[in-house]
Every structure is written in C-alpha cells, then in structure tokens.
Amino acid sequence: MEKFNRTLRGYDPVEVNQFLDQVIKKVENMVMELNRKNEEIRIRDEKIKKLEHKVNHNEENEKLKKEIRELKERISRYERTEETFNKAIIMAQKTSDQMRMAAHKESEVIVDNAKKNATRIVNEALLRAEKTEAEANNLRHNITKFKRRLKSIVEAQLEVIEEIDEVEL
C-alpha cells in the first residue's frame, strides 16, 4: 500500500492525486487489454462458428477439428485472463475507495485536533487577558493611592512652609 506524506489538513493531496492517476491509468490499460481480448474472442468465436458450420456440412476434416479445439482452448485462456483482469479491477477500485476513506477520516481527525488546539489557545489568551486586566486595575489602584499619599505629603510640606513664613514675620 502506498504511503503519503502528511500536510496540515491530512495527506498531501498532490501525492494522493498522483497515486490515483497511476491507479486510473493501470485500470484503463487493463480495460483496454480486456476489450482487445474480448474482440479477439469475438473474432475467434466467429471463426469457430464458420468452422463448425463447415464441419456440420459434411466437410469433416481433422485439421478443422484440431483448429476448433485450439481456438476453444484459446478462448478458455482468454476467459480466464478476463476473469483475472476483472478481479484486479475490482481490487484496485476497493483499494482506491479504502485509501480515500482513510484519507478522509485522517483529515477529519486532523481538523478536529486543530479546532481543539485553537479553542485551547483562545481560552489561554482570554485567561492571560483577564489576568493582565486585573494587574492593570491593581496598578491603577496603587497609583491612585500613591497620588493621595504624595498629595497629603506635599500639602503637609506646604503647611510647614506657611508656618515658617508666619514665624519669620
């Protein structure tokens, strides 16, 4: 069975398509060969009928009988070959269908995993954003507290300066 490289969404479509093209070409060649053999069988069947007709009309000739036997044997071989080709075609179709199904299932698994990872990443980003917002709020609160303290210190210092001004007067 052919092995394919994996890509983001399953198997590499180029490789799968190339493989399917190869399978299609082989199946087409088998069908062409089968048609050729069928044509040969048809031609030989016609020859047999003609020869049998001659034999049946009192032209019994050992040579003709021998040729008929040989033609029948060839037809039998062609029929076995045709049966083998038919089995090979069916097997190639089944293999192709199985590969398509496996590739489709694999792509579904990869997409599902990607969705789960994306959900996890989004959730983690939301948690980080919430944490950052909480830290920003805490900093704002601390800055406001610091401003109040600084303001009270500055006001106290201003009062001291005013008291110094009053004392010197």
Any chance you could write out the topology, listing elements then pairs?
Layout: E1 6-7, E2 10-11, H1 13-56, H2 62-168
Antiparallel strand pairs: 1-2
Helix pairs in contact: 1-2
Structure write-up:
There is one protein chain. This protein is mainly α and 169 residues long. It has a single domain (6-131), classed as Helix Hairpins (Orthogonal Bundle). The chain contains two helices and two strands; from the N terminus they run ββαα. It has helices spanning 13-56, 62-168, and strands at 6-7, 10-11. It has a two-stranded antiparallel ribbon. A hairpin with a 2-residue loop joins strand 1 (6-7) and strand 2. Helix 1 runs antiparallel to helix 2 (62-168). The longest helix has 107 residues, at 62-168. The mean pLDDT is 83.
Keywords:
single chain; 169 residues; Helix Hairpins; two-stranded antiparallel sheet; 2 helices; rod-shaped
Brief synopsis:
By secondary structure, the chain is mainly alpha-helical. The protein has two helices and two strands.
Number of strands: 2
What strand line-up does the widest sheet have?
Answer: 1-2
Helix and strand sequence: EEHH
* Radius of gyration computed on alpha carbons: 45 Å
CATH class: Mainly Alpha
Number of domains: 1
Report helical residue fraction: over 70%
Question: What's the architecture in CATH terms?
Answer: Orthogonal Bundle
* CATH topological fold name: Helix Hairpins
Q: Give the overall form.
A: rod-shaped
Biggest β-sheet, characterized?
Answer: 2 strands, antiparallel
Runs in which pLDDT lies below 50 for 5 or more consecutive residues are none
Q: What is the helix tally? A: 2
- Mean of all residue-level pLDDT scores: 83
Termini separation comes to 107 Å
